[in-house]
Write a structure and sequence with these properties.
The protein is an alpha/beta fold and 331 residues long. The protein has ten helices and twelve strands. Helix 2 crosses helix 3.
Length: 331
């Protein structure tokens, strides 16, 4: 859309220059019916079109720069603040060879590519929480990072980030994608009890599926899926996992998976043994279920965007995951 508007505004500039030339040198060329327009009228119109063209072009280019800066900020690695004490989980020096910064071309045995992003000042002897992001349909790891723009905020909060390429949804694919956190833990210093999963659409379905499928449900400590393609009816086929913090995000205007978010949070609230009758509305518009077993947080956040729109609740996601209790055992 912006590209089309830019073409239109540049065409207006070109037209105004031509009109100025005609107004100055050949005003008699411009007639409306049998009436010739005055030179000053032609020049005034030309100047008006020229100003509109220049202002419009500048506005489009400014918006483009802002969009580019926003994307860049979303991908920027931040410096974490390490609060280290006697209870801090650690890794033995020299046992985790993963590099600080961006490692963009990691790969599973099934050929799934993923990338890992650490804080700028990554300390390989301190265990970090891992936020694993699964991609929406058709997006690779780079596109997923731009789409969700979580990296800067999450690395500032001390998380190691990971983004995986999308794969067509099957139970086998979900199990293959579930292997990635374990592969990351072999190379980077990760707190295995603080592995968190998120994603949108197919990515949200993957994050949620890993949390209840036998063989993978032990992996996440909490999940924050968005726009999942799982219905409450589908979930009846599965046994509840142990209580786990859950933050489900879904839009009331999602026409691809209408109402799925409310159905899935009801299932999770039941599995977490919450009081499902009276969830409490929070200041940010989300609702939280009370009385859940082991005090696990169970939240539902409903937006108003279309299905393809990431809800943008990045701070809420990071705050939600950040309070999950830290492990105090030593590797």
């Amino acid at each position: 859309m912006n590209a089309l508007l830019l073409i239109i505004f540049r065409a207006m500039i070109f037209l105004s220059v031509a009109l100025l030339a005609v107004g100055i040198y050949k005003p008699e060329w411009l007639r409306f019916g049998q009436k010739q327009r005055a030179r000053l009228t032609i020049l005034a119109v030309a100047i008006g079109i020229l100003m509109i063209g220049f202002i419009g072009e500048a506005a489009i280019q400014y918006a483009g720069r802002n969009d580019a800066e926003a994307v860049s900020r979303g991908k920027t690695l931040s410096e974490a603040v390490y609060a280290v004490d006697n209870s801090t989980l650690r890794c033995e020096p020299g046992t985790k060879p993963g590099n600080a910064g961006a490692s963009n071309d990691e790969k599973t045995s099934a050929g799934i590519h993923y990338m890992v992003k650490t804080p700028v000042n990554y300390n390989s002897s301190i265990a970090h929480p891992l936020l694993m992001v699964y991609a929406p349909g058709g997006k690779n790891r780079y596109e997923s990072e731009e789409y969700m723009y979580l990296t800067q905020e999450a690395t500032a909060a001390g998380f190691i980030m990971a983004y995986a390429d999308h794969r067509k949804m099957t139970t086998e694919t979900i199990e293959e994608l579930a292997e990635i956190p374990g592969l990351i833990e072999k190379k980077w210093c990760i707190d295995k009890k603080r592995i968190f999963l998120t994603g949108h659409s197919d990515g949200g379905t993957t994050a949620m599926g890993i949390a209840f499928i036998n063989g993978t449900k032990h992996i996440p400590a909490a999940i924050a899926p968005s726009a999942v393609g799982i219905r409450g009816e589908d979930l009846k086929e599965y046994h509840c996992p142990n209580p786990i913090p859950v933050m489900v995000m879904h839009s009331s205007h999602d026409t691809l998976f209408p109402g799925y978010g409310k159905e899935t949070i009801q299932w999770w609230a039941t599995c977490n043994d919450c009081d499902t009758a009276s969830p409490v509305k929070d200041a940010d518009g989300c609702v939280t279920y009370r009385g859940c077993k082991n005090n696990v947080t169970t939240r539902y956040c409903e937006g108003t965007g279309t299905h393809p729109e990431w809800p943008g609740k990045n701070k809420a996601i990071i705050d939600f995951l950040g309070v999950v209790k830290m492990s105090v055992e030593i590797f």
